TrEMBL record:
It comes from Chryseobacterium gambrini. This is Uncharacterized protein. It comes from the Bacteria.
């Protein structure tokens, strides 16, 4: 307990007769003020130094340092090395002093009684000691011993009067610092009072995603890995630590909000997690738990120093300080320093900041939400930064209130309008344009970009939006998408690829131009009015095509196929792939018809009345036959399939995670990193069994459950009606019929739209169960480095066009028998 301070001291007057009592009271007051100044203005305990080391196994050094005992006595120590020891008996003048009236003695000396257990002790002696009873320190002497500095305070009697002189009558106080070795079993509560507990809480550390590594293949695998970090053991650990720190601090934080949820956060955490853990928003639950952990860690880091003592218990260590265990550096036995100045927890402003940190923790736990949002990129920080310095995520409600609690330091300076957040543009807490639209301003201070609002969106739309924002603001990161599907035995539909085909695209451009040139010129020559008229009347061309309701003369049919082949030459190779199979059929039909015409004309050339026209017609047919581009188109398609198979495999979660280390999830990407969107495609067992098409009597397009449309385009978007096991076969038939009859009847953009819809629903494995919505973003990750080029280019070398030889039917001497 604290001894009552002197409340009075004597004031002397002239000619006053003074007694020892008057003088001692004056000294008592001044001496007490000195000690209280140290204790009340500085603190108690070891201030600095007084470290233990061992130059040799049988030596011990105590470094210089300063300490203040709980009575306020200051210990100043010069460094010494000890090689000897001896046994001592503490003086009775210290343990049981006899003193006369003197208030300052009554305030201090009685505390020495607690050192009675140390009456017989071992004292360390320096290397240069001359003590006759010195004993050299042996090896292993320091095991299980504690080093203390004892401030021995002796009240020595100086009454040595003789008959002629009594000038030495009285007493004196002597202080002597003794370095003692105390056995650990002598540390008992009577000798060493329990110190005030240091606020030292354990941090929360959440497990990393997919560590230890498991192979991830499907979207369900990706989502389940997030759920592992939401296990009951993790929730319990977070809840217990939050509850403990709240109970420890609740007496000094303001009660401006209801902190009840912090008594047992587990119930609130489990309610949110159980309601959302099976949704595609599960990654944000993991982020939410990470935010809560960071908020807790910021609280326990708020004041890591020893607690302050405004009211010091003088009985803690009145005449000693403990330096530590003699044989190691275990600080559990060392007297800590307790500051008595205004500590962070005693300062009003700091207490307010601490209260806001707890209020923020309550807000995070109570107001987690998930809603559909627009895609937005917000600068932020990652690494060793407190949560209050990062931007506010999108998945919290009541942003205006959260903004006031997010950064207590900014709130204290009335600068919380500077806090970046997903909602800063619409929340209404700021008018600063650099906060509403931070990407338009200097981003040098930031090392991370939060990317939010894309979960649940179609991955192609999401990646286009993110890239658009990235390119508009010139942001330094890359974006890729990975398919969470098992493609070991399956290859996705090649028509779904929208990337760069590289040199294949260039080679396709060369081949299609050659084909267009030949076919286009042939069409122009045939449609020339005199030529067309003569061909119409040419008897050597027999009816060739007769199918169903279509009956056309041979020339119109041939022109139709020629136009169909020419119109298939779209500029984009990706679009061409959608019509590749029907184009090859058209190409073969043109070749077949041209060869039949040529053979028929050639065989009757000798009896032809118009040999010049017949040979001219043969030359144009030869040009069509000899263009020989079908092999090149097939080679391009095969090269594209090889490349697509490699790309589709490389851009799966399984393959990518195996070959790229360091993938993390933080709901964004660092500067210079790669942002990764995860979606699932191909693994689907339910598709549309009914595609609404206008059963156009002119086109004869096959349809399922045909329904009239308001549009005259004979086309509509596929809609899901029911699940059938044979719908894939139906779609294939619909696609084949469409390819057969649609050319030159439907405009190009409608053909592309139809093929896109049909291809979207074609799949390869009916046995795989659907786990997530197809082609939607279900998670995101990042790599801390730029990864992956724009795609592996395949060097495709075109062979030279085949040149006709001089053998039949390429060459026949009768071709030159035209009369001169």
């Amino acid at each position: 307990m604290k001894t009552q301070n002197p409340s009075k001291y004597p004031v002397f007057e002239a000619d006053q007769v003074l007694s020892q009592k008057h003088l001692n009271r004056a000294i008592s007051y001044l001496e007490e003020q000195d000690r209280l100044t140290r204790v009340g203005g500085i603190g108690v305990g070891i201030i600095c130094g007084l470290e233990i080391s061992h130059p040799q196994p049988n030596q011990i050094t105590i470094s210089c340092g300063t300490a203040i005992t709980s009575l306020g006595y200051q210990i100043n120590w010069e460094e010494k090395t000890f090689s000897y020891y001896h046994s001592i008996e503490l003086s009775a003048d210290f343990l049981a002093p006899k003193f006369i009236d003197g208030e300052y003695l009554e305030l201090t000396l009685p505390h020495a009684k607690k050192y009675e257990p140390l009456k017989n002790s071992i004292e360390l002696l320096p290397t240069n000691t001359l003590e006759v009873d010195r004993i050299a320190i042996p090896n292993n002497f320091f095991k299980d011993k504690i080093v203390i500095l004892l401030l021995e305070t002796l009240l020595i009697d100086e009454k040595n009067c003789v008959t002629t002189n009594c000038e030495d009558k009285g007493k004196r106080i002597e202080f002597k610092i003794r370095p003692l070795l105390i056995s650990i079993n002598q540390l008992n509560p009577y000798l060493f009072s329990e110190y005030p507990k240091v606020m030292n809480f354990e941090k929360i550390s959440l497990p990393r995603y997919n560590v230890p590594h498991n192979q991830l293949i499907t979207g369900l695998d990706v989502l389940n890995e997030f759920k592992k970090n939401l296990a009951d053991s993790v929730i319990s650990n977070v809840s217990d630590k939050i509850s403990l720190v709240y109970k420890s601090y609740k007496s000094i934080i303001s009660n401006t909000v209801d902190f009840n949820v912090l008594n047992n956060p587990k119930t609130a955490l489990e309610t949110v997690i159980n309601a959302n853990k099976d949704s595609i928003h599960v990654q944000y639950l993991w982020d939410w738990m990470s935010d809560i952990s960071s908020a807790y860690n910021e609280i326990i880091e708020f004041n890591e120093r020893n607690p302050s003592l405004c009211c010091v218990d003088e009985t803690m260590f009145p005449f000693h300080v403990v330096l530590g265990k003699a044989d190691d550096d275990n600080i559990n036995y060392r007297t800590p320093f307790f500051s008595t100045q205004n500590s962070s927890l005693k300062n009003k402003q700091k207490r307010k900041e601490l209260s806001l940190l707890f209020e923020r923790l309550v807000h995070l736990i109570k107001f987690w939400i998930t809603e559909d949002h627009v895609i937005k990129i917000t600068p932020s920080f990652y690494g060793d930064f407190p949560l209050s310095e990062k931007s506010i995520p999108f998945y919290y409600d009541h942003i205006l209130e959260l903004n006031k609690k997010w950064s207590p330091k900014k709130t204290g300076k009335n600068k919380n309008n500077e806090i970046l957040s997903y909602h800063s543009e619409v929340a209404g807490y700021t008018t600063l344009d650099c906060v509403k639209k931070p990407l338009l301003y200097d981003i040098e201070p930031y090392n991370f970009f939060r990317i939010e609002g894309h979960i649940g969106k179609n991955y192609q739309e999401a990646i286009k939006e993110i890239i658009a924002v990235k390119e508009y603001h010139n942001l330094p990161f890359k974006v890729i998408a990975l398919n969470a599907a098992d493609l070991e035995n399956h290859t996705p539909n090649i028509t779904t690829f929208e990337g760069d085909w590289g040199e294949i695209e260039l080679n396709y451009d060369l081949v299609r131009r050659d084909w267009e040139n030949v076919i286009g010129k042939s069409i122009e020559w045939i449609l020339y009015k005199d030529v067309k008229k003569e061909i119409d009347n040419y008897p050597k061309i027999k009816p060739y095509f007769n199918s169903g309701r279509f009956r056309k003369n041979e020339l119109d049919l041939f022109i139709t196929y020629l136009k169909r082949g020419r119109n298939s030459m779209v500029e984009s190779f990706s679009e061409f792939l959608k019509f590749y199979s029907s184009f090859i059929k058209t190409y073969e039909k043109i070749e077949d018809m041209a060869r039949n015409y040529r053979e028929n004309i050639f065989q009757n050339l000798g009896q032809d009345e118009n040999k010049i026209f017949a040979e001219d017609l043969i030359d144009h047919l030869d040009e069509i036959i000899m263009v020989c581009q079908k092999g090149e188109f097939r080679a391009l398609y095969q090269a594209a399939m090889l490349k697509w198979k490699e790309i589709s495999q490389n851009l799966t979660v399984k393959k990518f995670f195996e070959t790229h280390s360091g993938i993390e999830h933080k709901a964004g990407v660092n500067k210079g990193g790669t942002f990764i969107l995860i979606y699932e495609s191909v693994n689907k067992n339910r598709i549309s069994s009914e595609i609404m098409l206008n059963a156009n009597p002119v086109t004869g397009i096959a349809s399922v459950d045909a329904r009239p449309l308001t549009s005259t385009t004979a086309l509509a978007v596929p809609v899901i009606r029911k699940e059938t096991s044979d719908c894939n076969d139906k779609l294939i038939k619909i696609k084949a019929d469409f390819e057969r009859f649609s050319y030159n009847i439907l405009p190009y953009e409608y053909r592309v739209s139809f093929m896109n819809h049909v291809n979207r629903y074609l799949f390869y494995d009916n046995s795989i169960k659907e786990t997530v919505v197809q082609n939607t973003v279900i998670a995101d990750f990042y790599l801390p480095y730029i990864c992956c080029g724009e795609g592996d280019n395949i060097n495709f070398i075109l062979e030279k066009s085949k040149v006709g030889d001089f053998n039949h039917p390429d060459f026949n001497e009768k071709d030159f028998n035209t009369p001169q």
